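Please fill in the sequence for the structure shown.

STRUCTURE ENCODING:
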């Protein structure tokens, strides 16, 4: 054991510089203005999964994958305000859908009706569902909203939809696009109780809960550059390229072993890493109660997301964002203005940057890059005729194999709270108990929970 002097012992160390870690650091500072707080991150940048990497050619940020929030993500909105970036997200007050026949329909709120009826007029007008689809869907949503979540436990979304007379078309064109994008797994794996929350929070409870919040700047600029400035202004020390390998518990402080560096010391620790890394860190403490916790969280399963970015020599998609129906592609986002902010942007004057999102992309796992590009290009060609004569200047495919945990019916019982059996050791991360799926909102809430649990 190394014997630190008092000066070397931090009041709080947060392991992991994703949104959970950053949010917990900011909240801990608010609650404890005089503490010595250090945030350590194994990579060279903050932001974790909601981050960007640097394109070696242009030196510009490229987002891992398009990230989107919803109007009901109140802590995300507050968080970006705290980062001094209230302008970081554009608010889109409608959901647009492109049918295979080229028709565009949108769901938007009526000014005159209270929620949840505010969406009814535009829902009745959509043309990609027929009247029977809409009647069964409306009744299904009503039943889901009125069913207490406890009595839904243990069922998958697909089981529930099949028992509640949902048509194959409404499953494919509405339930699936909404829930797979929001929860990131296929309907046969998703927990219907979590799916219910998505509908209640975003569509039923408030007028603007379903609005889309789309980043107007690269994620790296927001959650790395601007977050660093905000944390430094709060006198929170950031140590990047600093990977915690293990923790030892001494009587009144913890000692963290850091790869290739000297150990760090802290009175309290928030472990804000993804669950596999957390499981290893908990095991390193060598306590039975933590082994049990570690074993439990290691049973969470993961689900992939694929983001595909195209830089095109011409503008092909006339929509700032749109969901494609009956295709592998789920969402297309126009990322041009965020890209043009950057000095190395190679887009020509009329060019366009498109970000394509495929959540729960299990079906792409066995395809190589060219096969994926061909499939996606063919779908874009038929969705946007201008694409047929466009040249792809650059293409990135980023698949995060463990993008999020899979919110299966079992997952809820595997998600721990922020408090562990070991006093002064806390957990944060989108996979902990937050009442939210694995999202930016969930990660931020987990960080707030952990900071508010500190002694
Ligand atoms: C491709 C993709 C698309 C997504 N799309 C959306 C979306 O549209 N909307 C949405 O709301 N959410 C989306 N998400 C989910 C969202 O990104 C996550 O829920 C959120 O960023 C998780 O934050 P976190 O802090 O819990 O974890 P992370 O972001 O994983 O942060 C954990 C950090 O800990 C660091 N770390 C790990 N081990 C160690 C160690 N031993 N020592 C020090 N540091 C360590 C990691 O490097 C990382 O920076 C998406 C995720 C992915 C991957």
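FILLED IN BY: designer on duty
SEQUENCE:
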């Amino acid at each position: 054991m190394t014997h630190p002097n008092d000066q070397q012992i931090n009041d709080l160390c947060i392991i992991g510089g994703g949104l959970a870690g950053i949010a917990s650091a900011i909240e801990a500072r608010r609650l404890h203005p005089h503490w010595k707080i250090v945030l350590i991150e194994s990579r060279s940048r903050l932001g974790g999964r909601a981050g960007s990497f640097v394109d070696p050619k242009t030196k510009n940020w490229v987002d891992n994958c398009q990230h989107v929030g919803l109007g009901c993500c109140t802590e995300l909105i507050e968080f970006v305000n705290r980062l001094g970036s209230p302008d970081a997200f554009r608010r889109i007050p409608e959901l647009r859908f492109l049918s295979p026949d080229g028709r565009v329909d949108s769901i938007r709120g009526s000014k005159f009706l209270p929620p949840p009826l505010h969406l009814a007029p535009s829902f009745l007008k959509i043309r990609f569902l027929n009247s029977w689809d809409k009647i069964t869907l409306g009744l299904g949503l009503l039943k889901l909203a009125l069913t207490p979540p406890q009595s839904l436990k243990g069922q998958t979304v697909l089981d529930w939809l099949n028992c509640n007379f949902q048509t194959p078309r409404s499953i494919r064109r509405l339930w699936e696009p909404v829930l797979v994008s929001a929860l990131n797994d296929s309907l046969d794996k998703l927990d219907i109780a979590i799916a219910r929350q998505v509908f209640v929070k975003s569509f039923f409870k408030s007028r603007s809960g379903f609005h889309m919040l789309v980043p107007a700047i690269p994620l790296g600029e927001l959650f790395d550059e601007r977050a660093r400035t905000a944390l430094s202004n709060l006198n929170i020390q950031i140590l990047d390229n600093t990977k915690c390998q293990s923790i030892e518990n001494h009587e009144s402080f913890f000692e963290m072993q850091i790869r290739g560096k000297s150990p760090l010391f802290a009175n309290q620790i928030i472990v804000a890493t993804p669950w596999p890394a957390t499981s290893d860190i908990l095991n390193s403490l060598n306590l039975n109660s933590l082994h049990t916790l570690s074993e439990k969280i290691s049973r969470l399963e993961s689900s992939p997301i694929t983001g595909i970015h195209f830089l095109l020599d011409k503008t092909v998609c006339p929509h700032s964002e749109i969901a494609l129906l009956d295709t592998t592609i789920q969402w297309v986002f126009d990322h041009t203005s965020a890209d043009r902010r950057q000095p190395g942007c190679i887009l020509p004057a009329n060019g366009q940057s498109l970000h394509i999102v495929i959540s729960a992309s299990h079906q792409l796992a066995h395809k190589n890059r060219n096969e994926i590009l061909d499939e996606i290009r063919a779908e874009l060609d038929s969705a946007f005729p201008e694409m047929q004569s466009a040249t792809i200047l650059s293409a990135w495919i980023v698949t995060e194999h463990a993008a999020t945990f899979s919110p299966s019916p079992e997952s809820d019982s595997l998600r721990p709270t922020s408090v562990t059996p070991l006093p002064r050791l806390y957990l944060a991360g989108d996979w902990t108990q937050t009442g939210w799926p694995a999202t930016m909102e969930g990660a931020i809430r987990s960080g707030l929970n952990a900071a508010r649990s500190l002694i």
